[in-house]
Amino acid sequence: MSSSLSGASPDYDLAVIGAGPAGQAACLSLNGALRIAVIDEQARPGGQILRQPPRAFSVADWMTGRAYRGLKARLAAFEALSNVDFMGGRSVLGLREAGGAWTLTLSGPSGVEEVSARRVLIAGGCYDLAVPIPGWTLPGVMSAGGTQAFIKSQQLVPGKRLAFAGSHPLQLLVAEQALEAGGEVAVVAFIQPFSTLVWRAITRPWAALTHGAVLLSALGSAWRLFRAGVPLRFGRPALSVEGQGRVSALRLGQTERFECDAAALCFGFMPQADLPRAAGLQVTPARPGGWKTNHDEWMRASRRGAYVAGETTGVKGAEAASAEGALAGLAVALDEGLIDQDEARRRARPWRKAREAAMWFSALLEAVADPGPFSARLPDADTIICRCEDVVLADLQAALARCDEVGSVKLATRCGMGACQGRNCEHSLLSLAGEPHSERSAFTARFPARPVRIGDLAAR
Amino acid sequence: MRKTQGVSRGEPFAFSVDGDAIQAYPGETIAAAMLAAEATGFRRDRSGRARGLFCNMGVCSECLVHVREGDVSRRLRACLVPAEPGMTVETGLGE
Ligand SMILES: Cc1cc2nc3c(=O)[nH]c(=O)nc-3n(C[C@H](O)[C@H](O)[C@H](O)COP(=O)(O)OP(=O)(O)OC[C@H]3O[C@@H](n4cnc5c(N)ncnc54)[C@H](O)[C@@H]3O)c2cc1C
Ligand code: FES
Question: In whole angstroms, what is the distance from residue A4 CA to residue A121 CA?
Fold first, then answer.
């Protein structure tokens, strides 16, 4: 891969960050035009919903559900594109624009490298919202999304007996997948009462109707888990994890305790926003937390030559992510002069429809799953909130009482200064400050967006 | 616990984690091989407590381990980096 010197022409016409449904759809809607680099830190394309097993594995019946059929067909078509260089196993650390070209700094197996392109599409997806509960830093406690990814991709159940807890219905699907893969499920616990989940769903009947299939699949999972003898619990906000050196039980309030050797937490998802924020793109607070990147009707972000698509613009499912990716691809074709306004509009129409339909469902899921700030209750004073720097709740509360600005808490406590760049703790800190969805951020997004050895950066 | 039904993997190999030989299959991440061997601690926090991985998708940095190659040691995310034959991995302290 050649690197760009200033003045030299960029390596690619388009660089796409993220090979999930959104990134794939953008490349597909460009119909073989343009030289495209697609960068992803995963070894293979697919994104979170289709996290592929390693090439060296052969897996019979991988993701055979009907819901995945269209996504798998698009993935196969993407992998066959000859105008795309897929650069897997590489993390984008940052990006900058100068003289009409974007330069991306990547870290990968061969150290740090740069790639330049005239346009960039950020399709980085989303990640699990981290909601601190007592004991959540014990080894064996992980996000439900991460648990699912182990099952889908590495063909591994990350424990023998798993306990699930949180507010998002996705945990029902993951628990069922764990069971099917040969794990035991100790319990699936929701912080909300059953009536709240149902009430929030039926007050949005349109979404419930148009996306009945997805809701039914969650209900179907619940039914099959129940039939398999898995305890289901609702209205259990007092979650905590117990263990010495690693998790040994999930506790629901004072009375119920479920032994397990792994616990999966599921509170919904936040858009990846570190790269857009570091690139100076405009963002808006998202629910339940984090930042979604702003865009126009053609998925153009607030700076020239930058586009966004998929869950980076707000969490709304794989179908909407694909639709936005396709729109972004058409926008690039339009801006490059490959197609005219009429053709762009005509080809965009079905994607806009698909996106609209999917948005209803995301609004429903958002309402059903919203854990509220700190799931409406605070963990113990000595619960770690900032996992990288070991900052506990009591330290943050003391600093918030002293500091006028949330931004100063970082300097006072080191909260948000660690390797995760605040991705885990920023939402918690803003929630503690009573402004979980304020326009003001707690931290400034900094380079590098992913950890890298200083020596490797200096060697550039 | 590796799923075996309907899954075929290549020939297993060994790599080292804190001096112990751990088995991995080609393509497995360091994290997957460690969890299959019930090695759940990936780093230690400031108080010396073991920490596990959290996100399994590259965003949280809780799975940072030291991977030694000759004189150079890099802190890499175990959930992203494939295990390789003869690799030397150390959990433990931060920087
Ligand atoms: C863990 C997890 C599990 C999920 N499971 C389901 C499910 O079962 N069903 C469902 O309907 N939806 C699920 N979702 C939601 C699902 O991710 C989306 O609907 C869909 O995959 C979004 O597509 P996308 O293209 O926007 O992003 P993604 O599919 O997330 O793809 C984004 C890609 O960008 C890459 N990336 C991000 N930042 C960088 C960087 N700095 N450098 C390099 N690469 C980067 C990531 O590695 C990723 O592969 C899940 C989400 C997560 C986070
Ligand atoms: S587990 Fe979060 S970065 Fe690896």
Answer: 18
Q: What is the pLDDT of residues A283-306, one digit of tens each?
A: 999 888 899 999 999 999 999 999
How does residue A52 score in pLDDT terms, banded at 50, 70 and 90? very high
> At residue A46, does pLDDT exceed 70?
yes
pTM more than 0.90: yes
Mean pLDDT of chain A: 90
Contact map slice: A 326-355 vs B, CB within 8 A: none
Domain count, chain A: 3
Are A52 and A46 in contact by the 8 Å Cβ rule? The answer is: yes
How far is residue A27 from each of residues A24, A179, A204, A350, A413, measured CA to CA in Å?
5, 36, 34, 17, 44
Out of A267, A295, A325, pick the residue that ends a domain: A267
In a domain, A3, yes or no: no
Partner B, chain A 44-73, Cβ-Cβ below 8 Å: 48, 53-61
B26/A56 CB distance under 8 A: yes
| Pairwise CB contact (< 8 Å): B41 & A41 | no
Residues of chain B falling short of pLDDT 50: none
Query: Is the domain of A293 the same as that of A392?
Result: no
Domain containing residue A317: CATH number? 3.50.50.60
Instruction: Note whether A193 and A293 are within 8 A (CB).
Output: no
Q: How would residue A141 be classed by pLDDT, with cut points 50, 70 and 90?
A: very high
The residue out of A335, A365, A395 marking a domain boundary is A365
Report the alpha-carbon distance of residue A340 to residue A414 in Å, rounded. Answer: 51
- In 3D space, the residue among A215, A216, A257 whose CA is nearest the CA of residue A236 turns out to be A257
Ligand 2 contact via B62 beta carbon (within 6 Å):
yes
- Confirm whether A6 is domain-assigned: no
In a domain, A349, yes or no: yes
Chain A residue nearest residue B62, CA to CA: A388
Q: Which CATH architecture does the domain made up of B13-87 adopt?
A: Roll (3.10)
One domain, residues A82 and A175: no
The reply to whether ipTM tops 0.95 is yes
For B35, which of A128, A156, A182 is closest by C-beta distance? A156
Q: Which residue is closest to A151 within chain B, CA to CA?
A: B3
Note down the domain range covering A197: 130-267
- C-beta A293 within 6 A of ligand 1: no
User: From the CB of B40, is ligand 2 less than 6 Å away?
Assistant: no
